[in-house]
Write a structure and sequence with these properties.
transmembrane; TPR-like_helical_dom_sf; membrane; 73% helix; 25 helices; 481 residues; Anaphase-promoting complex, cyclosome, subunit 3
């Protein structure tokens, strides 16, 4: 299922069934001030509890009708009489946020959703959503978001929305066994999560269980799509389920129909490209006819979503076969450029292939052009920077300029850190080189010959011959394998 960036549902935050009031809906702030004055004067004839209750009734009504400045003021007046309950504080925070009083809202949320104490479930859940839905979230944000979900779950252990959000977080962070366990607990009541469970089980190599739950998901999603044919999301999920079950033609057919119906939705085109790539990957055989089928599917993928970087490895592999199909592919990529289609990716593939073939001038042109067209794509920046480091003469400073902004956005990508480490070696920044290269071997590049040789050079220059020798030994061993 294509990930939407949202958790299972945050509709729970809106507290279905709340008793809404309409008494002061839409009144201007001046009238609210008069109302506050009236209520204050009435203290002489009413108890404080009565006055506080009236403030809260009018505050809730103002919030319900969208008058959040008025609501915030009324909540504050009620709080002057006596501290608000956590539900009222939460509603006050939401109104303050809508009214643009972010600092006030954050202060309230920090009070009712502390990081180390289970206080108010809705506030903890809301805080988790803010941390985890942020596309620029850091690892610290993920850890804090998980802590908030766990605190919410302490308070409401049977809340399936919280459990689904926690399971999704486990899945996204690679803790697949825990994700599967959580999804298993809630799918009997929530069949819409069957596909997530199936994908978790597939990653755990529990093939039969994954298929069984995938088929359950398919049955449910087919019913949903049939019940409401205009529900694009239901059909989108149905296509994802067919792809999971490797029924690629059916999945592609549904997505093609969705694209025709809603051409402005790029997620449908990206999903169709992914289906074609998975379909191509599933093909078995190394003969020329199979390669031709691979090429046809990858060409389809490129035609529907021209910036799909996941195509890079597949097309590079096919291009490196040196047969009739690879020649057809090279001609196809050149034709794309001539006709203005898939320009960035076509330049990237031709430039990367040229670099491997020692075709210096064409490679330089294609990689630089790819970078101009796709400056925010990590693989484009990495390949262009690597070329600059290995060109004659090397250009490490320019490589660092290219890599800096990309690494700032994606510091966890080991290939980028490895390339930057090599750039630091070239300008003799030994300590910076060690920091990046050690990160690279710790995060996926252990055994890389060039990385260990780079560390050997850096440690030699830093006066640590024992460490340098150890990295040389690992590099030589890896080179012999």
């Amino acid at each position: 299922m294509a990930r939407s960036g949202r958790f299972f549902t945050f509709g729970w935050l809106r507290s279905a069934g709340r008793k809404w009031w309409n008494l002061v809906g839409g009144i201007p702030i001046l009238l609210v001030a008069l109302l506050v004055g009236y209520l204050a004067i009435s203290c002489s004839i009413s108890s404080e509890n009565d006055i506080r209750s009236r403030y809260l009734v009018h505050a809730d009504a103002a919030a319900a009708s969208g008058n959040h400045k008025s609501a915030t003021l009324l909540y504050e007046r009620a709080m002057e009489i006596r501290e608000l309950t956590d539900p009222s504080l939460f509603q006050m925070a939401m109104s303050a946020l809508e009214a643009g009083e972010t600092a006030k809202a954050n202060t309230i949320i920090q009070k009712i959703a502390p990081p180390d104490e289970a206080r108010y479930a809705r506030a903890h859940f809301w805080r988790a959503s803010q941390l985890l839905d942020n596309p620029r979230r850091t690892m610290d944000d993920v850890i804090a978001g998980e802590d908030q979900l766990k605190l919410a779950l302490q308070l409401e252990p049977t809340n399936d929305n919280i459990r689904a959000a926690l399971a999704t977080l486990y899945f996204q962070s690679g803790r697949i066994d825990r994700a599967a366990a959580e999804f298993s607990n809630i799918t009997p009541q929530h069949p819409e999560l069957e596909l997530r469970l199936a994908k978790s089980l597939a990653l755990l190599k529990r093939t039969d269980d994954a298929k069984a739950h995938g088929e359950k998901a398919l049955k449910y999603l087919k019913e949903q799509a049939a019940r409401d044919p205009d529900n694009l999301n239901a059909r989108y999920q149905l296509a994802d389920c067919y792809a999971f079950l490797e029924e690629f033609p059916t999945s592609a057919k549904i997505l093609t129909e969705l694209i025709a119906q809603s051409p402005a939705k790029p997620e449908f085109s990206k999903a169709l490209s992914t289906v074609y790539v998975k379909w191509e990957t599933s093909l078995i055989g190394d003969d020329i006819e199979t390669d031709r089928n691979r090429f046809a599917l990858l060409a389809q993928a490129l035609s529907v979503y021209s910036n799909d970087i996941q195509l890079f490895d597949r097309l590079m592999q096919l291009l490196g076969k040196r047969n009739e199909v690879s020649e057809e592919l090279a001609a196809f990529l050149n034709r794309n450029i001539a006709e203005g289609r898939a320009l960035g990716l076509s330049h990237l593939i031709l430039g990367s292939r040229g670099f491997l073939d020692d075709r210096v001038e064409p490679s330089m042109f294609h990689l630089e052009r790819a970078y101009e067209l796709m400056p925010n794509a990590a693989i484009v920046a990495n390949n262009f920077a690597w070329y600059l480091l290995n060109s004659d003469p090397p250009a490490p400073q320019r490589a660092l300029q290219i890599l800096g902004p990309i690494i700032e956005k994606s510091p966890e990508v080991s290939a980028l850190r490895d390339t930057r480490g090599m750039a630091y070696l070239a300008i003799q920044e030994w300590r910076k080189a060690v920091a990046d290269l050690e990160f690279a071997i710790e995060n996926g590049l252990r055994g890389s010959v060039t990385t260990h040789r780079g560390l050997a050079e850096a440690y030699t220059q830093l006066g640590l011959p024992e460490l340098a020798e150890e990295h040389r030994r690992i590099a030589e061993k890896s080179a012999d394998q």
